[in-house]
Amino acid sequence: MGRAPCCDKANVKKGPWSPEEDAKLKAYIEQYGTGGNWIALPQKIGLKRCGKSCRLRWLNYLRPNIKHGGFSEEEDNIICSLYISIGSRWSIIAAQLPGRTDNDIKNYWNTKLKKKLLGRRKQSSNIHRLSNQDPNDPHQPTGSDDNQLSQGLSNSAMERLQLHMQLQSLQNPFSFYNNPALWPKIHPLQEKMIQNMQASNGNPNLLMQPLLPPNPQPANEQSTVHQQDYPEISNTKGLEGLDNCLDGISASDGSVPFGNGDNLMDSTSTDAAVQPGSSFQGELDVFLNHKSSTTGGYPQEDQMVNQLDCFRDINGSKDSSIWWPTDFDAKSASSNSWDSTSVLQSNGMFQDFELGYPM
DNA sequence: AAGCTTTACAACCGCGCATCT
DNA sequence: TAGATGCGCGGTTGTAAAGCT
């Protein structure tokens, strides 16, 4: 079953494009355009390529005015701030960076920026942990409830959470993470998972701990999860709420990654997406350029990385996208990658965003 | 110098959504 | 209105180059 392939796979060439193919495709599109039908395009040109492949090649490589590599510090900042705020919506991020493609940004993030921000230790510790996994080891996770809970947690959400917390905890003692009054209500499933993590880890200074608001319930009720109270959250999707939680943090903790929503809404250029001189800009600078003023580094990092490891997806579950306002037309944003008008301002995105996730 | 590992980037794949018929 | 088709997106994979031992 499944969907029919978009082209005849057997008669379609795959792999790197030759200069001749590039020339054919570029010449045709420059002369005739795409004709609004990528699937038919390769046949018209005489290319043994899938239409989708042609489209990708054109959009990511052959299209005029494309910049490759050499991301500026400002671009780094924009990418980071947008990623923290909206996650892996690469097309939207790309729309804020003229000349950049979503694929380029995605690659840049995965290979450089992420490591730059989160540190390299995470990856190595992950590899170490995986390489040491013994399926017969009873002390290692199996198919427990905790794992099932963890399965719903996205890497994207965790990265965003981690990045945001790092930024917040750096220099601002009054930031969200140090102010319980600002903490959002957390879903009991999430709380239970975090408690389990704390219990298994034995470390009260768990990364996630700041997310836990003081629980007013009697002790004997704290671990009781009433699924019916949260009908929208299934077992497998329970942790998507963390995405919402994180987005709520980004949107309304008073120290929004963009400085504040108004800055963005009022911005008329991509430069305004990250206000130079803003506190967030400064925080980003610290991370991007290692300008740590007093600590000379990030002593929390190793601990945070270790703590995060127990969150890592076991089954490669995908990031949820439920946080995004459903009426936001992401496609219309992404399809205009070359429009310098900020998609964020034109769609009132952050207004919707804030309205959708009150605290 | 050889072999191995890591990095960077291009390309592919599957799926959701919008549009068309 | 339902099915078919195409587009666009995000995740993942493949591979050449660079770096390391």
Compute the average pLDDT: 55
Q: What fraction strand?
A: under 5%
**How many beta-strand segments?**
0
- Write the element-wise H/E pattern from the N-terminal end onward: HHHHHHHHHHHHHHHHHH
Helix content: 40-55%
Number of domains: 2
Largest β-sheet summary: none
| Gap between N and C termini | 45 Å
Report the uncertain regions: 120-154, 182-187, 200-278, 290-359
Q: Identify the overall geometry.
A: elongated
> Which structural class do you get from the secondary structure elements?
mainly alpha
User: What is the radius of gyration computed over CA atoms, rounded to a whole number of angstroms?
Assistant: 23 Å
Q: How many helical stretches?
A: 18
Brief synopsis:
By secondary structure, the protein is mainly α. Helix content is 50%, strand content 0%.
Description:
The protein is mainly alpha-helical and 359 residues long. It is 50% helix and 0% strand. The radius of gyration is 23 Å and the shape is elongated. The protein is built from 18 helices and no strands. The chain has helices spanning 19-32, 41-45, 51-62, 73-86, 90-95, 102-118, 121-131, 145-151, 155-171, 188-201, 219-222, 240-252, 261-266, 279-289, 300-309, 330-334, 343-346, 349-356. It folds into 2 domains: 9-62, Arc Repressor Mutant, subunit A (Orthogonal Bundle), CATH 1.10.10.60; 73-133 and 142-189 and 227-356, no CATH class. The structure holds a DNA duplex (21 and 21 nucleotides).
